[in-house]
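A reminder from the course coordinator: this example appears on the midterm review sheet, so study it carefully.

Given structure:
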């Protein structure tokens, strides 16, 4: 009994999606993850500005940046200033609505923080 193949087997070259080595044009994953982490942190910090407590936390972080010479102080009970320029001369960079010395007429944008630092915009 003889066994003869009716055809000759030809090796098949696999297509690009079946090759063992990945193609060289794949997107690197580490920069993509870093971009996603950066975007998430920006969105997270930005979402704090939508709550009153979050604005107080963000403005407390701005206090040292408002007066770089280190002459800042917290508002004390009984503090009263005619305007924000007088408050800044006294060493107060921004006044939250829960702190003494806050008045609605000193809060120009109505966000609960009076005498905010001017950023030049």
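Designed residues:
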């Amino acid at each position: 009994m003889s066994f003869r193949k009716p055809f000759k087997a030809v090796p098949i070259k696999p297509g690009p999606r079946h090759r063992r080595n990945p193609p060289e044009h794949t997107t690197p994953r580490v920069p993509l993850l870093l971009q996603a982490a950066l975007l998430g942190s920006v969105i997270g910090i930005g979402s704090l500005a939508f709550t009153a407590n979050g604005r107080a936390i963000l403005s407390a972080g701005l206090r040292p940046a408002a007066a770089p010479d280190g002459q800042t102080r917290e508002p004390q009970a009984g503090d009263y200033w005619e305007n924000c320029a007088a408050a800044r001369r006294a060493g107060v960079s921004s006044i939250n609505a829960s702190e003494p010395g806050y008045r609605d007429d000193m809060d120009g944008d109505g966000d609960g923080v009076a005498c905010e630092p001017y950023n030049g915009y």
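The first helix runs from residue 29 to 47. The radius of gyration is 32 Å.
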